[in-house]
Write a structure and sequence with these properties.
heterodimer; A: alpha/beta; six-stranded mixed beta sheet; elongated; B: alpha/beta; BirA Bifunctional Protein, domain 2; eight-stranded mixed beta sheet; 14 helices; 40% helix; 21% strand
Chain lengths: 216, 410
């Protein structure tokens, strides 16, 4: 039985669609009334685990799921031993530094040394500011990071930006990007080495489905 | 006061310890039959030794706050290789050594803090039995092949002894550092390290991103998928590398173990891009994996580490330095076999009770008499007024029976 860890939230719909194109139908997870966290595929040969974004690489790293779909941002932040197999292309967004629109700073390197930066992605932020040689005080927040600069708690934030609307509506602007993120197919490295074909076949079908345009 | 052990540390109950000991004893029995002698390498070592020439990342080492840069061993090979080249240098080769003990690895825990992982390991090292000189063959390769074959057969014998059968779906992953290097020789030198990392780390995205001519990249992508039944993979490798002594040796080694492996239900899988976690090895590498209840379980891992032995050898001996070994993860083995192997239930002890303080010396005498007769017996901690209440306490504790000692009984 092949187990796939799928991230709840923004990536779920596209993940299900892509797996359907590759022959594994997990449409049941999208049904509005679904409360089940482990859902079998329509064919009965696979099952999906519905987990939080950050938990996808955890289930895959421990081998409980052989495959998973999760954003590159999560992989960068958590750095677990999983194999990145495919760039699935959807769920595109940027990891950006943002400040208040009224802020005088327009480049990350201009931010004052030892200023406070709020983020959910503190490891990514730490690596980025380390590379800039800019000492900063990172504040870990679990969400609504935009409030950091609004309330004056932090000078800037590091957060995911998809359309930029949330930033705009909260009076913030993105000044620099750390990296671009899309959904990735990840796998358990040992399970892939032990695979006699079925796992790689799914990966190949997903890759082929990525080349074909997604059905609307 | 904290009532929990430090994150990652093991705190075992008697049944678990008994299970570990039984497995270690069974493995040791096989090692001894094959002519291996036990050594006990130090738990604490210099960091320089532990890093094994860069093979082990220093972030994985548990460092000690000491005057010297010291750490706890993450594995035992480096220490044993050093002992073999120094104190045991005069001993005739090949040197067959085994050891068991706890190894420590450092990692990052959930909260970002240090997490120390303790593991019980039992393994063998075969030193000074023909070197491959880091994969290049100088006519000695055949001898190295003999050591490889011995070690693999010993591994299979150990599996047989501890009770790993086809039902556990054991699979022996085999790779070869030298073969992978030969395959990567065609890649431009500046891309070689990145290509190797992408292959061994199973990272097709990194492989696709390498700046290489299309044909070469496709060759590497095909290599990442190349694994399976040894004969078929060897054929593919020969198509790419041409006939070479390295592949002939590998073929001979595999032929020496294939029938036994098949009889035991162990699947052999040749996987050219497979490398173990620690980068100690420069020849054959191996990992034994079984299917656990819900995820693959790594039971043993090892390989050939001639260069590591060379680091501890003198200039003249460096070219002929050789070593090969493997270690079992005893606790993974115990957890996999838990409940399957009929464990001989220990005989419950006899409870020795005594009427009052005056009878205590006599009760202790009685206790030792029972021990002298080879019987398990334990003392009741407080006086017990009657024979019948002693009997009741004994049955409550699950004892085999009771002995009640009156004052003046001795």
């Amino acid at each position: 039985m092949i187990t796939v860890a799928l991230a709840k939230g923004a990536l779920l719909k596209d993940s299900v669609r892509r797996f359907a194109a590759a022959g594994l139908d997990f449409a049941a997870v999208l049904e509005p009334g679904n409360r089940q966290l482990m859902v079998p595929s329509a064919c009965g040969n696979a099952r999906a685990l519905l987990v939080r974004n950050a938990d996808v690489p955890v289930y895959v790293a421990y081998g409980q799921a052989q495959l998973g779909v999760v954003g590159y941002d999560v992989l960068r932040e958590h750095q677990l031993p999983v194999a990145q197999l495919l760039d699935l292309g959807f769920g595109g967004c940027r990891m950006s530094v943002a400040v208040k629109a009224s802020s005088p700073y327009r480049r990350s390197a201009d931010l004052p040394a030892h200023c406070r930066i709020a983020s959910k992605f503190t490891r990514c932020a730490q690596e980025y500011f380390d590379a800039l040689d800019l000492p900063v005080e990172l504040i870990h927040l679990a969400g609504s990071v935009e409030l950091g600069p609004i309330t004056g708690m932090s000078e800037a934030i590091v957060d995911l930006v998809a359309t930029g609307r949330t930033l705009e509506e909260n009076g913030l602007i993105a000044i620099e990007d750390l990296f671009h993120s899309t959904a990735r197919l990840v796998g358990h490295p040992l399970a892939l080495r032990l695979d006699d074909g079925p796992l790689q076949a799914i990966v190949d079908r997903l890759a082929a489905a990525a080349l074909a345009p997604l059905p609307a | 006061m904290a009532l929990q052990p430090a994150a990652g540390a093991r705190d075992l109950n008697p049944r678990q310890v008994e299970g570990n000991r039984r497995l270690c004893d069974q493995l040791a029995e096989v090692y001894r039959l094959w002519g291996y002698q036990e050594v006990a390498p130090p738990t604490v070592e210099r960091l320089e030794t532990l890093e094994a020439g860069g093979g082990i990342a220093s972030r994985e080492l548990v460092r000690l706050a000491a005057d010297e840069p010291l750490g706890l061993r993450p594995e035992m090979t480096a220490s044993i290789a050093r002992a073999a080249c120094t104190r045991l240098a005069a001993r005739p080769r090949p040197l067959r050594l085994w050891s068991s003990g706890v190894v420590f690895r450092s990692g990052v825990g959930d909260a970002g803090g240090q997490r120390i992982e303790e593991q019980l390991q039992s393994g063998v090292e075969l030193l000074g039995s023909g070197a491959t000189n880091g994969g290049t063959n100088d006519g000695n390769g055949g001898v190295a092949g003999v050591a490889d074959a011995e070690l693999l057969r010993l591994l299979l014998a150990c599996l047989r002894r501890v009770g790993i059968t086809g039902a556990h779906q054991p699979r022996l992953l085999l790779g070869h550092h030298g073969v992978l290097s030969a395959l990567l020789d065609q890649v431009p030198a500046e891309q070689r390290t990145a290509a190797r990392q992408a292959l061994t780390g199973f990272d097709p995205l990194a492989l696709a991103a390498l700046e290489l001519p299309q044909r070469q990249r496709q060759g590497l992508q095909a290599l990442m998928r190349l694994r399976g039944e040894p004969a078929a993979v060897l054929y593919q490798l020969e198509q790419q590398l041409g006939p070479c002594a390295l592949l002939d040796d590998l073929d001979a080694t595999l032929k020496a173990i294939a029938p036994v492996a098949a009889a035991q239900g162990v699947t052999l899988q040749l996987d050219p891009s497979f490398q173990p976690h620690f980068d100690l090895y420069d020849g054959l590498v191996l990992k034994l994996v079984c299917q656990g209840a819900d995820a693959p379980v790594e039971l043993a891992s090892g390989g050939r580490y001639d260069a590591l032995v060379g680091r501890f050898s003198s200039e003249q001996e460096r070219s002929s330095a050789s070593g090969m070994g493997f270690g079992f993860a005893v606790e993974a083995l115990r957890e996999l076999l838990d409940g399957e192997v009929a464990e001989p239930e220990p005989q419950p002890p006899v409870l020795v009770a005594y009427a009052n303080a005056l009878a205590l010396p006599a009760a202790l005498d009685r206790l030792e008499q029972l021990h002298g007769a080879g019987k398990r017996a334990e003392l009741l901690a407080e006086p017990c007024p009657t024979r019948s209440s002693a009997e009741a306490i004994a049955s409550g504790r699950g004892c085999a029976g009771s002995v009640w000692v009156e004052p003046g009984a001795a």
